[in-house]
């Protein structure tokens, strides 16, 4: 764990690609971040990957805010806050006791279950959004979003499914998500430092990968005006399912 910088060249190539996807996920395709989670968890110990990926996500958050900060829907963020806080606490407790072999399949199973629920709700009401005040939806997605983002930085797909269930327009989706994760990821930093998951080797690894995050974020800013709402929704769902399925592989 302490020699992360000595990874094989192939591992570095995959991590660089994952870093690029982190940036892309923040400014264009939120579901794509599940691929980064899977790559980091495959190359690094699962718990270590949580700390390493968090710092890159924060860099991506900065670009997301620069691009979409004015489009956030603050009433949605305020409704989610209590459930997300509860999920963060549950995730911190789980992370303190769970081993590397437990973290990946738990997150994968949650993501697949939430994708199934989202597809069922969209098929049940194909043209109408769920009421923004729907309490069980907000509590369910909010708690799972807080839990999964603390445990494996996998809150992005969960919250993407929530915004899709609400049939949120693309720019509002990205703006609300930008503020949500900018706040939540900063809150997570002292927790992960306290758990020993952010160390000097992790910081060095992240310093090498930051330029790739910037590259991905800039490409995402170019890409998003060229994506239709329906295509955007389908891509988010597809990437979530693929990433979740990979996390379930032993």
Quick one: overall form? globular
Helices, by number, come to 10
Q: Total number of β-strand segments?
A: 0
- H and E string: HHHHHHHHHH
Radius of gyration, CA atoms, in whole angstroms: 17 Å
Low-pLDDT residue intervals, each spanning 5 or more residues = 126-133
What's the quaternary structure here? single chain
Q: Separation of termini?
A: 20 Å
Structural class: mainly alpha
How many domains make up the 3D coordinates? 1
**Tell me about the biggest sheet?**
none
Taking all residues together, what is the mean pLDDT? 83
Helix content: over 70%
Percent range for β-strand residues: under 5%
Protein name: Probable membrane transporter protein
Family: Belongs to the 4-toluene sulfonate uptake permease (TSUP) (TC 2.A.102) family.
Pfam families: TauE
Main location: membrane
